[in-house]
Amino acid sequence: MSYPNNQQYPAPGGPPPPQQGYGQPPAGQYPPGQYPPPSYPPQQQAWGAPPNQQYPPQGYPPQQYPPPQQPYGQPPQGQYPPPQGQYGAPPPGQYPPPQQQWGQPPAGYGSPAPPPGQYPPQGYPPQQQQQQYYGAPPPGQYGGYPTQAIPPSPGYGPAPQNINVTAQVEGLYKAMKGFGTNEKQLIAILPKLDPIQVNAVRAQYNQRYHEDLIKRLESETSGNFEDALVQIARGPLLSDVWNLRAAMKGMGTKESVLNDVLIGRSNADINAIKREYQQVHGRSLEGDLRSDLSAATEQMFIMIVSAQRSEEVDPVNPQQVERDVAELQGAFGNFMTKNSVKACQILTSRSDAQIRAIAQRYEQQYGQPFVKTLKRTFDGHMEQALLLLVARAQNRALSDAEQLEDAMAGLGTNDTLLIQRVVRAHWDKQHMQRVRSEYQRRYGKDLVKRIKGETRGDYEKTLVACVE
Question: d(Cα 204, Cα 163) in Å, to the nearest integer?
Fold first, then answer.
């Protein structure tokens, strides 16, 4: 479908479906947009509406669907619904920056934005762009046109060439050369590397000194300090692959690790994880998930790793949200009529913006918070996975902050989860600072001080270096 020539698209200040992987701007960083303008969108065509279909739908007064003061898809911020915001929009002031174009994901870890002007091209969609991209909904489901596949996160795609990390490579070698280890130098180098640099450091170290950096770190360090350094040195993709295998190897399954690594990831990242898992371990991720999980939970994770989510540039279609809400309510049912697979199929295939819209519309329709309904309907591993999916869609930084506290709360600290969660968040420095801000707001204490109270020695210094 095409848009009127006199209609600017994307609309400045309009509501992009945000990326809810890493890199979501924090609440309050950007002023909430004053949209929609009185003259936009035209009454006969709305954002995300199917082609050649009048919006609002027949039977709804133009001024009442959706009610201007209660747009769908915006999480509650103290009161519900908020006075401003748009269908599928994140919390007021959180997203997007004023210069962000409609339909583009936010810049940052997990959501590289398409090149300026690439989406949507003038006269979109031309015939040569009608192919279906992976992860896109079936034609006609969200407006009837193909979507643009989001590139993988830094460290998950092809390695850039000619990365100069000679100083870091030599510094690591000197820190472990001869008798004794210079732990201070290891801590000064590794936590400061970004995903591209750490992959280059590992490759160049192995080539230059004819030894494996990971094995050398394991031989020179021990305990939680070793685990933290190895998590960093492997980089985000290899860490995901090793953590997944460890979670399913041996007796029992570490469900929290499966959730942490796989829930809410982009299609490109999931596909990268599957390829690397097969290459490193010589076995398929899907096969191991089937072996370790069962029933509806197994089916849910197979859906997740099928990498069929709507992309974050896909529009939020009000008609589809209405259908999703109605189908979810029927799937929740009761103990006898509950259809867990149907509920998972809907939620695991929707983008973060679409999940936010579903959650808000559900509460408007049934007077019950969506999260509360999930808790009432599901239990065990499935409940945890679906709650994390919704939490990450609504506010990724706050969700990460809550997970960090969960790893430290109670008697004793779950050091394995704490290390993995700190290292995973630190790959995007801006995201890490948003997590720290959300932690302060949520718990009234500084994250660095909290970590210092739960850790000791070089282990403590390594995690603090990641957070700071």
Answer: 10
DSSP classification of residue 127: G
- Output the pTM of the full model: 0.70
Name residue 398's amino acid: L
d(CA 262, CA 385): 10
- C-alpha dist (Å) from residue 333 to 301, 343, 362, 377, 384: 22, 10, 14, 8, 19
Nearest to 73 by CA among 62, 60, 84, 59: 84
List of the chain residues with pLDDT < 70:
1-148, 335
DSSP code of residue 284:
-
380-394 and 340-348 helices, crossing angle to 10° = 30
Q: In DSSP terms, which residues pair with 77 in a beta bridge?
A: 79
Cis peptide leading into residue 66 (ω within 30°): yes
d(CA 335, CA 161): 56
pLDDT of residue 252: 72
| pLDDT of amino acid 333 | 84
CA distances from 260 to 278, 404, 424 (A): 20, 11, 9
The 8 Å CB, 24+ separation contacts for 175-181 are: 176/216, 176/217, 176/220, 181/220, 181/221
**In angstroms, rounded to a whole number, what is the distance separating the alpha carbons of residues 226 and 136?**
41
Reported for 32-41, long-range contacts at CB under 8 A and 24+ positions apart, including other chains, are 32/84, 32/85, 32/92, 32/93, 33/84, 33/86, 33/96, 33/98, 34/84, 35/11, 35/86, 36/11, 36/86, 37/11, 40/7, 40/11, 41/7, 41/11
Burial status of residue 333 (CB atoms within 10 A of its CB: 0-12, 13-18, 19 or more): middle
Residue 129 Cα distances to 146, 245, 290, 323, 331, angstroms: 8, 38, 36, 28, 36
Identify the pLDDT of residue 265: 97
Q: Which domains does the chain show, CATH number per domain? A: 166-292 (1.10.220.10), 318-467 (1.10.220.10)
User: Residue with structure tokens 């009608």?
Assistant: 130
Closest CA to 371 of 417, 328, 308: 328
Kindly report the CA angle at 445 between 442 and 449, in degrees rounded to 5? 135
| Phi and psi torsions of 23, nearest 5° | 95, 20
Please report, as a single letter, which amino acid is at residue 393: A
Residue 79, SS3 per DSSP: strand
Question: Cα(206)–Cα(326) distance, rounded to whole angstroms?
Answer: 55
DSSP string, 419-441: HHHHHHHHTSHHHHHHHHHHHHH
Are 236 and 364 a contacting pair, CB within 8 Å? no
How high is the pLDDT of residue 148? Answer: 66
